[in-house]
Write a structure and sequence with these properties.
Strand content: 15-25%
Order of helices and strands: HHHHHHEEEEEEHHHHH
Shape: elongated
Radius of gyration: 27 Å
Helix content: 55-70%
Number of helices: 11
Oligomer: single chain
Mean pLDDT: 85
């Protein structure tokens, strides 16, 4: 009998989860279009391009919808069982509330794993959406104070680049030692690019760092390095947004910025949220289950009210903690995970107090 009950609870929860997951992403589509439609029209984008961009952003919308759909499915599943006295019947048969919702928790763990897998899919699809939406400013001919990483691992830290004359001021180039090849550390007051001749670096220092910890260093007035093929136009490319980078790419970019003395807290917060938001799927399921055991009437309105209130509170806490971390007022990990920790503590308290 218990297996039949488990399958019934899991089937009901999954059916509701799929329904809500299918509906929730369109709320994000509407929000995006409402906020950015004028910008898309100003860029001359066609209807087909806007639609395709929304399609490529769908993995991100789905991932953000997992906690919402998980919470609503839990609340509606448990509240329906409460109002139809199914929980009372299960308790009369010797099945506690904690045992009754075990299938929901097990399915929640599985869904959390899917949400974490989406964390690697979302950045790639967001890059494609950004290309379609033409986020790069075609009129831009210069950049200041930026970091650019080449495909071969060469990091450019640039004070100012002007593409029309191919000139860089205040440059630092770095490449770690790998596969027996020496590492590179070059600083230059200026670099000049000539078509067909490449980059010439002026007035600086060059260090070659070998794997055995030895190094060669010298000062130069003019220097050229083989294998540097980046053109000034390439260095003008729009830097990736945090939403377009994976967890590993965010870590690497933050490390580069910190080595140059910059502030990478914003990237580090976004990196931790790539894990904390998917994990919120399981946390809000645990939080919502005991909330829905009330016998007050309200049906659908009650379920929607509890779900929306919980989601709004979670988003508020997430934004507040992220802002505090970026300001340096709260350590990174506690700030990034505090919404989940608070809701988990509340869930455990409610689960302990619920009548079993």
């Amino acid at each position: 009998m218990i297996r039949i009950l488990d399958r019934l609870v899991a089937r009901t929860f999954l059916k509701l989860f799929v329904i809500f997951l299918g509906a929730a992403p369109f709320l994000f589509v509407i929000m995006d279009l409402t906020e950015n439609l004028d910008t898309y029209l100003d860029r001359g984008l066609t209807t087909v391009e806007v639609v395709m961009a929304q399609v490529y952003q769908m993995p991100q919308f789905l991932q953000l919808s997992f906690p919402i759909a998980g919470l609503m499915a839990t609340v509606f599943t448990v509240h329906s069982m409460t109002t139809h006295r199914e929980i009372v019947a299960a308790k009369a048969g010797g099945i506690s509330f904690h045992r009754l919702i075990r299938p929901v928790v097990v399915v929640g763990v599985f869904l959390t794993g899917i949400a974490l897998v989406l964390s690697d899919v979302v950045p790639r699809s967001n890059r494609r959406a950004a290309e379609i939406l033409n986020l790069q400013d075609p009129a831009r001919t210069w950049r200041t104070d930026f970091v650019y990483e080449s495909l071969d691992g060469l990091t450019w830290q640039v004070g100012r680049l002007t593409a029309p004359d191919g000139r860089i001021r205040n440059l630092l180039l770095e490449r770690p030692a790998e596969g027996g090849a020496p590492g590179l550390h070059l600083t230059a007051d200026m670099a000049q690019y000539e078509e067909g001749d490449g980059w010439t670096f002026m007035r600086g220092f060059l260090r070659q760092l070998r794997a055995d910890s030895t190094e060669h260093a010298y000062q130069f007035e003019r220097a050229k390095l083989a294998g540097i093929t980046e053109r000034p136009e390439e260095l003008l490319e729009r830097p990736r947004l945090p939403e377009e980078m994976t967890y590993r790419e965010l870590s690497r970019q933050a490390e580069i910025i910190e080595r140059s003395g910059g502030d990478a807290l914003d990237l580090l917060v976004k990196r931790e949220q790539k894990l904390s938001i998917p994990v919120a799927t399981l946390v809000v399921i645990l939080f919502g289950a005991p909330l829905a055991t009330t016998t007050r009437r309200g049906g659908t309105a009650y379920g929607i009210g509890v779900s929306l209130g919980t989601v709004m509170l979670y988003i508020l806490l997430l934004r507040m903690s992220g802002a505090l971390a970026q300001a340096g007022a709260v350590p990174l990990l506690p700030a990034s995970w505090s919404p989940n920790a608070l809701f988990l503590a509340g869930a455990l308290l409610l689960l302990v107090r619920v009548r079993t």
